[in-house]
Each structure stands twice: as C-alpha cells, then as structure tokens.
Recover the amino acids of this structure.
C-alpha cells in the first residue's frame, strides 16, 4: 500500500461519512476517489476493481430510492415530503452540520399536523423517518461493499 492509496482511502472514508452526515455528496466523493485511484495506477486490474466498486455505488443509489420510496408513498403524501425537503434545506443553512437532519422531521410533522391533526401526524412522521433511515442504511451498506471491492483492488495491484 502506497501513500497514494492511503490518500485515496482517506477520501473514500470521508465520502462514507458524507453518506451518514449529509454535508458532502458521499457517494459521489467515493466514486471520484475510486476512479482517481484507478487513473493514478493506470492498470487494467485497478480499473476493473474501480468499475466494480462504482457499479456497487450505483446500485446502492437506485435501491436507496426504490426500496423506501414504496413504503413512503403509502404512508406520507408527496406534498408533505416536499415540505420536509424544503425545511431540511432551510435547516441545513440555519443549523450547520445537523440542520437537515432536524429540519426534515420537523417539516414533515408540521405539514402532517396541519393536514390530519395532532394525533395522526406522529405515525406519518415516524414512517417518513423510517424510510429515510432505510435509505441511508442502503447507501451506507453499498458504500462499505464498494470499499471492500476497492480494498481488493489495492491488494491485487
């Protein structure tokens, strides 16, 4: 393992952290670092492993929207999700680092409270949070799978 491998590995770990804490585009950062590593090495083996890792990240992106999306549409209307998204974006700027994580559930709860009342708002909010949690978990697992493939490439090269 060279210093270049370590540098790209650190970028990949920062990307993995960006999946959980939505400050950075985590998956994109991981993919760019893996492709950069393959470009730096230049060999076919490196490119094959980088391509495999990036494909895993891509599959994770598709599944992260498809799997929780079905659950979410059944429990929470689109208008409520839009309010949650807007308050997440506002929260990101109002409260640095964790504002999006705070803004989304608050926005969903307020929108649902206005739509269906106080008693029925909490189950919808929990369903939205569960779907977001599943989405993050899917992307995180895909990120780790890509890291394992990338590490295999580092070992093989």
């Amino acid at each position: 393992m060279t210093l270049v491998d370590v540098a790209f590995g650190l970028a990949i770990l920062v990307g993995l952290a960006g999946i959980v804490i939505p400050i950075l585009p985590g998956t994109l950062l991981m993919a760019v670092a893996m492709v950069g590593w393959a470009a730096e090495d230049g060999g076919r083996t490196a490119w094959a492993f980088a391509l495999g890792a990036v494909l895993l990240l891509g599959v994770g992106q598709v599944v992260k929207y498809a799997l929780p999306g079905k659950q979410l549409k059944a429990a929470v209307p689109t208008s409520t999700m839009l309010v949650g998204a807007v308050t997440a974006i506002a929260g990101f700027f109002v409260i640095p680092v964790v504002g999006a994580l705070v803004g989304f559930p608050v926005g969903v709860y307020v929108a649902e409270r206005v739509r269906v009342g106080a008693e029925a708002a909490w189950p919808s909010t929990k369903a939205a949070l569960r779907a977001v949690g599943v989405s993050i978990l899917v992307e995180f697992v895909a990120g780790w799978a890509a890291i394992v493939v990338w590490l295999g490439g580092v070992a093989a090269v």
DSSP finds six helices and no strands in the chain. The chain has a mean pLDDT of 89.
